[in-house]
Design brief:
- The structure holds two protein chains of two kinds.
- By secondary structure, chain A is of the alpha+beta class.
- Helices cover about 50% and strands about 10% of the residues of chain A.
- In chain A, helix 9 packs antiparallel against helix 13.
- Chain A is globular, with a radius of gyration of 21 Å.
- Chain B is of the alpha+beta class.
- Chain B has one domain: Alpha-Beta Plaits (2-Layer Sandwich).
- Chain B has two helices and five strands; from the N terminus they run βαβββαβ.
- In chain B, the strands form two sheets. A three-stranded antiparallel sheet of chain B has the order 4-1-5, with helices on one face. In chain B, strands 2-3 form a two-stranded antiparallel ribbon.
- Chain B is globular and about 30 Å long.
- The chains are: A alpha+beta, B alpha+beta.
Chain lengths: ~400, ~60
């Protein structure tokens, strides 16, 4: 009698040549709903990703990330082990309840005119050149200035915020240990920023995002100064790279699907669908990690306590079993993607990201015709959190 | 008393509502949402929170 694990494919996810969008991965997915890897299990198909993402048998699992990299103390470590993503149970739920109101979709909607003005301003600066470096000239300033708008700090602060967010981001990558001093310095600077903002809103509360966090009150329970500060760092850290990278990947998707770009140019009402379809087929977060809290069996596969389970979002989003036509299609109906994760740890800022990207993409489509690669593009590895580092594009200015 | 409804075709069982308004929403042992269709007026703030946070906006206040 053969056991399931004998038949499952094997993927080395630490190999530098490992790629999410590859024949090897598609073949593995066709063979099996999961693959064994050098570091836990990878879940490849939509239905299984959907179920496991919300399973109470799995926790988020990356609380030990700094320790796994030999980092046991310091500002980043102390912030990380208390940040919302790694908390579980009531500790998690309490913070989530207090942060939720500030991220309400109804409040985010009011910021849409500012997102549009921002997008137009950025496009105005390069539209007559017929070319731009899309990351530097659009995606990065757009993603960062959206955060400054949300935080109510001057948009002119954006280069500093972008630099700090990117530096802290090194802590989640392969150079964490080498870059530790830089990361620590960036966290310290972000803390100073956050503390100033908090003090200001405590003294002069308004209707803005930070004020809402400061005033958040659930049956008398409030966020402490430390919890407020940690939340602001999380917003900056979690909201910049992701949106920047996702916009770059969106441009890549539309360069590959020019008829969809033309459709979007005449149908700005499809902005929301465009975001969903890009994130389904070309997400920046290509996998979401979980850890088993107990031994359990899922679809005849025994999963031991402590097993790392990688939920592959790009693979699930293009799974032919869930999407008979896996290609991006703004006019089609599709099951929801998991580019924002899911379950209790579902991205807290997703309404912000959805709103700002839904404005940016149709606006870009309306103003730039025929975007194409101009050469010299550089990319993060097609694994983990991916996206372009440099994306020179050419286009024709529309009348 | 007020009434809510959940569009099950949209509901993806994330469980955010169960965090925001645990007196009205809960996830069962299979990870599927169970909820009280009617609730006391005093729970309205919590329920509105749940309506807001649902990632797929599947919850509706009926009256």
């Amino acid at each position: 009698m053969s056991t399931p694990t004998v038949e499952a494919p094997y993927l080395d996810i630490s190999d530098p040549s490992f790629a999410m969008q590859s024949e090897a991965l598609r073949a593995a997915r066709e063979q099996s709903w999961y693959a064994r890897t050098n570091f836990g299990l990878a879940v490849l198909r939509y239905d299984e990703v959907s179920k496991l993402l919300k399973s109470p048998k799995l926790i988020q699992g990356s609380a030990k990330w700094p320790a796994h990299n030999g980092v046991h103390s310091g500002l980043f470590h102390d912030w990380w082990i208390k940040n919302l993503l790694v908390l579980e149970g009531e500790d998690h739920h309490r913070i989530r309840r207090l942060l939720n109101p500030a991220f309400s979709p109804r409040l985010i909607k009011d910021l849409v005119p500012r997102f549009q003005a921002l997008a137009n301003e950025l496009v105005d600066a390069f539209i007559d050149k017929g070319e731009c470096e899309f990351v530097k000239d659009f995606a990065e300033p757009y993603a960062t200035r959206v955060l400054t708008i949300l935080l109510g700090i001057p948009e002119s602060e954006w280069p500093k915020i972008a630099r700090l967010a990117s530096t802290v981001g090194l802590a989640l990558g392969v150079t964490f240990k080498q870059d530790l001093d830089k990361v620590e310095a960036a966290v310290a600077e972000l803390y100073e920023y956050a503390e100033e903002l908090i003090k200001d809103r405590q003294a002069n509360p308004g209707e803005d995002f930070v004020s809402r966090l400061v005033l958040a009150n659930r049956d008398g329970d409030r966020l402490s100064d430390e919890e407020l500060r940690n939340a602001l760092v999380l917003l900056i850290f979690g909201g910049m790279d992701t949106t920047r990278n996702q916009l770059g990947l969106a441009m890549q998707s539309f360069i590959r699907n020019p008829e969809q770009w033309e459709l979007l140019a005449t149908r700005p009402d499809l902005g929301g669908k465009a975001v969903e379809e890009v994130m389904r087929t070309n997400p920046t977060v290509t996998w979401v990690t979980r850890e088993a809290v107990e031994d359990f069996t899922f679809q005849d596969l025994p999963i031991a306590k402590g097993t790392t389970v990688h939920l592959f979002t790009q693979s699930s989003g293009t799974d032919p079993q869930a999407f008979p036509n896996p290609e991006m299609d703004l006019l089609g109906e599709h099951a929801p993607h998991y580019g924002f994760g899911g379950g209790v740890h579902h991205c807290l800022g997703h309404f912000v990201a959805r709103a700002d990207m839904s404005e940016a993409l149709p606006l870009l489509a309306r103003r730039l015709a025929g975007p194409h690669l101009a050469g010299g593009d550089e990319w993060l590895p097609d694994s983990g959190n991916t996206g372009p580092i440099r994306l020179p594009i050419g286009f024709t200015k529309r009348a | 008393m007020k009434t809510i409804d959940v569009d099950r075709s949209l509901c993806d069982n994330h469980g955010q509502c169960a965090i925001a308004a645990p007196s009205v929403f809960r996830m069962n042992s299979e990870g599927i949402l169970e909820f009280e269709e009617t609730f006391e007026d005093g729970l309205l703030d919590e329920v509105e929170e749940a309506i807001d946070v649902c990632p797929v906006q599947a919850i509706f206040l009926k009256d």
